[in-house]
Amino acid sequence: MLFKISFSNIRKSLKDYAVYFFTLVVGVAVFYVFNAIETQTAFLNVSEDHREFIKFLVQAISAVSVFVAVVLGLLIVYASRFLMKRRNKEFALYMMLGMSKWKISALLLCETVMIGIGSLFVGLLIGVGLSQVMSAVVANLFEADMTSFKFTISGSAIAKTIIYFGIMYAVVIIRSGIVIGKCRLITLMQSGRRSEKITMKNPWLCVIVFLISAAVLGYAYYMVGWNQMDLGPKKILAAIIMGAVSTFFIFWSVAGMLLRVIMSVKGLYHRGLNSFTFRQISSKVNTTVASMTVICLMLFVTICTLSSAFVIRNNMNEQVEEFFPVDFYGEMEKQDNDDQPMYTDIEKNYSDQGLSIEDDLGEYHNFHIYTDPGFTVLGYIGDKTDKLTDEYGSIGQMDDYRLEMIRLSDYNALMKLYGGKALELNDDEYAICATFSGFVSIYEMLLEDNPVINVFGNELVPHSQKTIYSYVRPSMQPINGGVFIVPDGAVEESGAGVNIVVGNYSANDKKELAEAEKTARENWEKAQKNIVGDSQSSGTRIYMDTKIEAANSAVDLGALVTFLGLYIGFVFLVSCGAILALKELSESSDSASRYTMLRKLGVEENEITRSVFAQSAIFFTLPLLLACLHSYFGMRLAKFMLSMLVSGGIFKSMLFTAGVVVLIYGGYFLLTFIGSRAIVREQK
Question: What are phi and psi of 496, to 5 degrees?
Fold first, then answer.
């Protein structure tokens, strides 16, 4: 009997359960897809290096899944509150007919189990299908061979999904039983007559709070948007706290000012159903300040997370080609030690072990980086030290940091290998090459004054007031903080410190390239074996990298941020949309009798529909607008921080993120409007 009633209730209340069921299905599908990655990739022909990273990725996703489960669990509990509130009169009727509270609880248990099983089945079905698409995405990311791929279902992902969501449903069942146990018949019967009271806050207090909050928020924007060089962990945390608190008080003050402001505009307020519509909106915002704040901050995190993930993913592979144009890069540096000369020689190390670099590299260039003890950062900045220290606090800590130099002939030889443009200098000129955006802007500001430098007793003037966008050391990121290019005769060999070798293998295909890479790595280790084991005591730093390793690292990093960004972003978007949708549907349910009164007063149905649409649109738009404003300044900080990692723009990534937000968040808005309109028309 209970099963029959439960099934009948679900069938009659499909419109009430639509958002709830849709949220559960999306949550189950997303949870399964990301937790099934390990099984999907097991059938792909992925290189050993990538396979090790995939294991790490799976562990990271498993850790994030705990957080995701908590978020979804809270969302499901919140959604169940709406459904309970929506059915108060129904529960009152059951109690009047003599049904005991434990039987009502048993009825809810049956309904929850049926909805849970249904959502799990549909969600897993969709998830299994989407996971096959995810396999193609993984194969594309890791350049895997899909010839051995086959349709798979992850038993472990299904088990994990059932366990996690089973726990969530159990919490909902327990909570529902407690709520029913505490219910009183009179409270249930009068629930439809009670509505949230509009508290008219003092308008002047609201204005003052709004202005203070806007000022604090503006200062936080300045900190993260224009003062990034002086930002440390404590200041970033302070900016986050200021932003979050200001967001709460902005919604609090707007809730108090909104109706007052609209009421002061008589022509707008008294037009059509605007007086009714804006009172409804004011009531909703006034009673959901905390919810609006949380949703706004979640949307902000979602937009920044997705945009940053797409920026990294879209630029990493391209950057390897741009900033690591050779196959091999090795570097050795003698640390400052009075007992040993600073000069190092990689070719001599090879020769001492009976090896030759020419055997590994078809073309290469061996060169040194030079430093002069008297040519330092603060010495070059000169009288602008105080100004730059005020803007970039870390500049003042580089008092004895030596600036690096490279001979013009070595630079031009590198440009020939890298495919760059050769440079011509007079004997009394110097130039600066850099790729890190923060330092590029500083150098160009300093070059406006045509500063003269003195290196090894030679005075040199700037070749140009512009920094050359190039690099000396290959890397997959634009991290060249500045190297001075000087005439060959301006340096002394006593200043030679870092020794670098860059070059290309003699290989014609992928297989030969892999063999050449293996041989070059083995010979590098052999050539340095006399100091590798004792590098700290000998004061020598040794580093080696290859284009293949850089490309693999770029793929791995891109995959990590893409998967985790999408995982967290989707869950946050679903949560924001669902919370707003359920709150709006609940308000529409409480206000259904008001719409009946409007009809009795002669209001046309299309005007009521427009009012419902306006309320839903404004309710969904308010947190999104402030979140977009937060995101603009947040992405300025993200762009600065990512400038050490990627060099591309963020416009395309922001457009893609906007598309994802519109699809999911906009989908919830559409469902909410349709549901609210259906609720309003019930008592027609």
Answer: -70, 125
